Amino acid sequence: MAGQLPNWENIAEKINSYVDDVRNEFEQMLGEIVEIPTVSMDPSYKNDIERGADLAVEFLKKFGFEAKKCTTPGNPVVFGSYVTDPKNPTVAIYNHLDVQPAGGPEWIREPFKFTKENGKYYGRGTTDDKGPALTALFAARFAVENGIPINIKFIWEFEEENGSPNFGYFIKNYKSELKTNSVLVSDTLWISSDKPAIPYGLRGLQGARLVLETGTKDVHSGTTGGWARNPIGELCQLISQLYDAKTGKVKIPGFYKDVKKLSDKELKNFLSSGFDVKKRMEVFGFKSVRTKDKAEVLRRIWAEPTFEVHGIVGGYTGPGIKTIVPPRAEAKISMRLVPNQTPKKAFKLLKDYVKKLNPDVEVKPENELEPYLGEFEGPYASAAVKAIEYAFGVKPAFIREGGSIGAVVTMQKLLKVPIVMIGLSLPEHGYHEPNENFDWKQASGGMKAFVRYFYEISQIK
Q1: 119 and 208 in one domain?
Q2: Closest to 434 in 3D by CA, of 37, 41, 38, 103
Q3: pLDDT digits (tens, 9 = 90+) for 283-330
Q4: In what order do the strands lie in the sheet with 204-213?
Q5: What is the model's pLDDT at position 241?
Q6: For a FRET experiment, which of 68, 132, 146, 217 has its CA 20 to 30 Å from that of 271?
């Protein structure tokens, strides 16, 4: 019967044994998908992206879902659906199955070889975001098999790490099939291993390349130095005029004008979140930081915009010194944005100011994402709190997160339904870092949390 809620005590008795029983199956499936290098930003991995999408469809069908690979102008999106009863409410679960590039001397294990060690799972994509995606899938199977009156849809993207350039195309072209009452996203971080978090805000992003060409070839610094322009030096000077590297303050005129002020209630939530500055410094390997004041740290990483330099390319980079003046240099930069800033306006402010400071520098746009701000109150937020408290025994904190998820903004605009982010990843899991990992404690707890969340939201009118 549609909408009839089974007894929670009966479900709770079954969920523990279910989680224990499926551990080997979970680990096997995670290993299979991790060992496919679904790197989205490198076109040479296109065949692996397609293989990963095909395997994702197999996973969904194996669990009883209708599933298909949906084409876009870029990488595919895998869509799955299980209808318990058309009259029941529906939740759409979003994850991404593409990953960051991996490799280099800091990896102590092969990045695309799945490794199990003492309840930990190593490999690129284990925590971002293949482990949480499979965790939600296992919870969904349990929910429908045990009579929780909810319809479940899965949206698995393969371009999130590349800025989700075609996710809007997917939503618009499959909107009728995507009809849902709410969205659940599991692609975010906890405060620490003993403090869960429910983010309700994400920063946006505007990337750019600053390019300066002053010649056509390397020239001798002895015969031309003092006369020739040095593009590396000029870009360094330009960057120092765009932001203060010591404080992080952005100097671009008008940059902070549209920033939405952090409310007192939000700051209070931030400060009571359990964030530990010293521990977080240890996790990230910082030797020094701009500030250790807790309130200031939390404002800076969750609620304020930034300007960052990611790399400067130009000149000679081999051993020793080659005494030349290079003809060209490029700086790769980005600006993290917060509500109510927009990438379009931020880029225009940057371009206009660069033109004033050094008109010979070309400003070339790269990835852009708008910031996101949702709700931290209401029935869905309450359901998320109950779910996490049930599974992990700890009340979660409501925070904003400093990263960006382009698909969340797209879903907010086009689906127009509540979005809740219940992440399972820990700071030490190594998002985008060498030796990325996930663990069974988070996976097993996550299955229980998602089942309880499905139970709670199935009764929201």
Answers
A1: no
A2: 103
A3: 889 999 999 999 999 999 999 999 999 999 999 999 999 999 999 999
A4: 306-314, 328-337, 204-213, 362-369
A5: 98
A6: 132
Would the pLDDT of 148 be above 70? yes
SS3 158: coil
- Judge if 71 and 214 occupy the same domain: no
Are 229 and 83 within one domain? no
Do 222 and 340 lie in one domain? The reply is yes
Q: Which of 369, 391, 424 is the last residue of a domain?
A: 369
**Would the pLDDT of 75 be above 50?**
yes
Percent of the chain beyond pLDDT 70?
99
> What is the CATH classification number for the domain harbouring 241?
3.30.70.360
- Residue 218, CB half-sphere, CA atoms under 13 Å: how many? 7
Query: Do 27 and 176 belong to one domain?
Result: yes
Q: How do residues 41-74 score in pLDDT, each as one tens digit?
A: 999 999 999 999 999 999 999 999 999 999 999 9
User: What pLDDT, in 10s, does the model give residues 108-138?
Assistant: 999 999 999 999 999 999 999 999 999 999 9
Q: Kindly report the pTM of this predicted structure.
A: 0.90
> Could you tell me if residue 45 is inside a domain?
yes
Q: Note whether 167 and 94 are within 8 A (CB).
A: no
Alpha helices, H only, 146-200: 167-173
Q: How far is CA 145 from CA 149, 312, 452, in A?
A: 10, 54, 14
Average pLDDT over residues 348-362: 98
Q: At what angle do helices 440-457 and 23-34 cross, to 10 degrees?
A: 110
Whether residue 209 sits in one domain with residue 197: no
Helices then strands, counting H and E runs in the chain, come out as 14, 18
Query: Six-digit token pair at 165?
Result: 């350039």
Among the listed residues 376, 421, 423, 427, the one whose alpha carbon sits nearest the alpha carbon of residue 398: 376
Asked if the structure places residue 232 within a domain, the reply is: yes
Task: Report how many domains make up the chain.
Answer: 2
Cα–Cα distance list, 191 to 121, 158, 186, 265 (Å):
20, 26, 15, 18
Question: In which domain, by residue range, is 343 found?
Answer: 204-259+304-369
